[in-house]
């Protein structure tokens, strides 16, 4: 009987220790999310941010419900594109953005619902300057921001690891972007594209 009580005590101690660790992590995650989300245009229910997420231009960024933003991911909006008064970055609900992604908008990027994004993906609607001789003589960081157009990613899209989505691209609903692909043109709905530049299979 003594042995049984000791075993139960040990199991209870292990269980309580585990529950305490889970509760601490849960509380810290919500505190971190509240801190990061402060000042953003909108952040929906049950959306969470992992550690080391960087947000620039947060007043122009909105994120829907049940979306996860992974560690060391950068979300940014930038002013300075001629003719664009306010940049916008809109991320839908049930979107998974894992670690080390970079999404940067100087005009408008819209990501739909239920989008699955791989690691180290870049999505951008802008570039530093034009390829004129005058611009190329300047340091890249000092060139005027340019945008060839907004980026629109539909619902239920899957983007593989290390893919790059360039300015002016629309990706239709239900499409798949292969790993390491560079998307330079529109992708029709329910299409699979791969390669650099990405082409339809």
Radius of gyration: 21 Å
Low-pLDDT regions: none
End-to-end CA span: 68 Å
- Give the number of DSSP strands: 22
Characterization of the model:
By secondary structure, the protein is an alpha/beta fold. It has two helices and 22 strands. It has helices spanning 2-37, 133-136, and strands spanning 42-43, 48-49, 54-56, 61-63, 68-69, 74-77, 88-91, 96-97, 102-105, 108-111, 116-117, 122-124, 127-128, 145-146, 151-153, 158-159, 164-165, 170-171, 176-177, 182-183, 192-194, 199-200. β21 and β22 (199-200) form a beta hairpin. The N and C termini lie far apart (68 Å).
Write a compact overview of the structure shown.
The protein has helices at residues 2-37, 133-136; strands spanning 42-43, 48-49, 54-56, 61-63, 68-69, 74-77, 88-91, 96-97, 102-105, 108-111, 116-117, 122-124, 127-128, 145-146, 151-153, 158-159, 164-165, 170-171, 176-177, 182-183, 192-194, 199-200.
Helices and strands in order, then pairings?
Blueprint: H1 2-37, E1 42-43, E2 48-49, E3 54-56, E4 61-63, E5 68-69, E6 74-77, E7 88-91, E8 96-97, E9 102-105, E10 108-111, E11 116-117, E12 122-124, E13 127-128, H2 133-136, E14 145-146, E15 151-153, E16 158-159, E17 164-165, E18 170-171, E19 176-177, E20 182-183, E21 192-194, E22 199-200
Parallel strand pairs: 1-4, 2-5, 3-6, 4-7, 5-8, 6-9, 7-10, 9-12, 10-15, 11-16, 12-17, 15-18, 16-19, 17-20, 19-21
Antiparallel strand pairs: 13-14, 21-22
């Amino acid at each position: 009987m003594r042995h049984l009580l000791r075993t139960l005590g040990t199991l209870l101690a292990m269980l309580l220790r585990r529950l305490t660790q889970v509760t601490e992590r849960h509380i810290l995650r919500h505190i971190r999310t509240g801190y990061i989300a402060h000042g953003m245009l909108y952040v929906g229910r049950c959306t969470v941010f992992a550690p080391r997420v960087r947000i620039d231009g947060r007043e122009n960024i909105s994120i829907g419900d049940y979306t996860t933003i992974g560690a060391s991911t950068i979300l940014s909006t930038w002013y300075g594109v001629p003719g664009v008064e306010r940049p916008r970055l809109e991320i839908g609900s049930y979107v998974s953005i894992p670690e080390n992604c970079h999404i940067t908008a100087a005009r408008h990027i819209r990501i739909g619902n239920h989008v699955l994004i791989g690691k180290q993906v870049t999505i951008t609607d802008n570039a530093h300057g034009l390829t004129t001789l005058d611009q190329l003589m300047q340091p890249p960081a000092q060139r005027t921001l340019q945008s060839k157009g907004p980026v629109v990613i539909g619902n239920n899209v899957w983007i593989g690891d290390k893919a790059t989505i360039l300015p002016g691209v629309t990706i239709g609903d239900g499409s798949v972007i292969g790993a390491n692909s560079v998307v330079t043109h529109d992708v029709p709905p329910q299409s699979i594209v791969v390669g650099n530049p990405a082409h339809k299979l």
